Amino acid sequence: MPVHEEAQVFGPEGSHVGILTRRDGDSAVPPVACVIPNAGLIYRIGPRRFSVKLARALAEAGIPTLRFDLAGVGDSKYVGESSSARERILASMRCAFDQLERTTGVRRFIVMGICSGAVNAYRIATVDERVVGVFMYDKFYYRSRWTTPVYLAKRAWVVGPGRAVVAALRALGRRLGPKAQGGEPSMAAFANLDAESPPKDEFVADVNKLVERGVKLSFVYGGSFPAYYSYAQQFRDAFAGEPFLAKVEYRHLPTLDHMVSSLDAQRTLQSAVLEWAAGFAPR
Q1: 140, 203 in Cβ contact below 8 A?
Q2: Are 73 and 12 in contact (CB under 8 A)?
Q3: DSSP assignment, residue 105?
């Protein structure tokens, strides 16, 4: 079914810019709408225009979708009193929800995010009960006892055992170096994906609360960071015994790169999102 796209200017002093995509001819209020925030500093089209394609596919399925720029990214600007970056982002996400309420009548939202977009999707879900679903691509990373052995075995198969051991020692040095040598915290976070993940006990508590609230969570990992996510059941092994485990979705798609560069990668990730979102689509 055809869809149409509408430019949206919203938020304090018209500070936020986005594109709302929805199906032609829909008159009834749909069960949910989707929000797609920025992936890093890439503006609202997303990496390789993935957000554009995904928004159109979701709209065809009956889920209106707003892809937009957070305050200070792309065409959106900062206004009002200064606050922490985290609070500005949460305020931007709430503005997007409010805009969708005004334009579509929807009061329940799902959020799809890549990289930092996944972080922001997760964070807004923990503080805004209008969120009923979160799809996270390539965030957060928690190792199991098998992560490193599997990674090293796979690497040894490709480059040989000697080079694999050398690479492992270098990686360990990078992980420990900034902390041990008093390096800048910002550089440590850049070099170490572990630093970008909440403490494990905090993550477990938050996810259990979200699941109890009925939020549908999907954690999908590509193949760009095999030292951090190396095999299909890593998420299960990392959280064995946790109450939420049977109620969330987790997948490893090792053929996908972080920026979904190829058309095949985009189709694969889009299919995963649509499959997850089907539970929210109009019947």
Answers
A1: yes
A2: no
A3: -
Query: Rounded to 5 degrees, what are φ and ψ at 200?
Result: -60, -40
Backbone angles phi, psi at 166, to 5 degrees: -60, -45
Q: Residue 131 forms beta bridges with which residues? A: 109
Say yes or no to pLDDT of 101 above 60.
yes
Residue that the structure tokens 């996400």 belong to: 93
Tokens 């089907």 belong to residue = 278
Q: Hey, what are 216's tokens? A: 């549908």
Domain covering 3-142+198-277 assigned CATH 3.40.50.1820 in the classification:
yes
What is the spatial distance between Cα 97 and Cα 131, in angstroms, rounded to a whole number? Answer: 9
DSSP 70: P
> What's the confidence (pLDDT) of residue 179?
47
Token couple for 200 = 């494990």
Angle of helix 147-159 relative to helix 161-180, nearest 10 degrees? 130
Query: Domain ranges in the chain?
Result: 3-142+198-277, 145-196
Cβ(174)–Cβ(166) below 8 Å: no
Q: Is 156 helix (H, G, I), strand (E, B) or coil?
A: helix
DSSP assignment, residue 32?
Answer: -
What three-state secondary structure class fits 199?
A: coil
pLDDT at position 165 is 65
Q: What region, left, alpha or beta, does residue 48 occupy, with left being phi > 0 and alpha being psi -120 to 50 degrees?
A: left
Task: Name residues whose C-beta falls within 8 Å of residue 172's C-beta, 6 or more positions apart in sequence.
Answer: none
pTM for this predicted structure: 0.89
* Nearest alpha-carbon partner for 56 in 2, 97, 105, 98: 2
Find out whether 134 and 122 touch, Cβ atoms under 8 Å: yes
Please give the helix or strand (H or E) that residue 240 lies within, else none: none
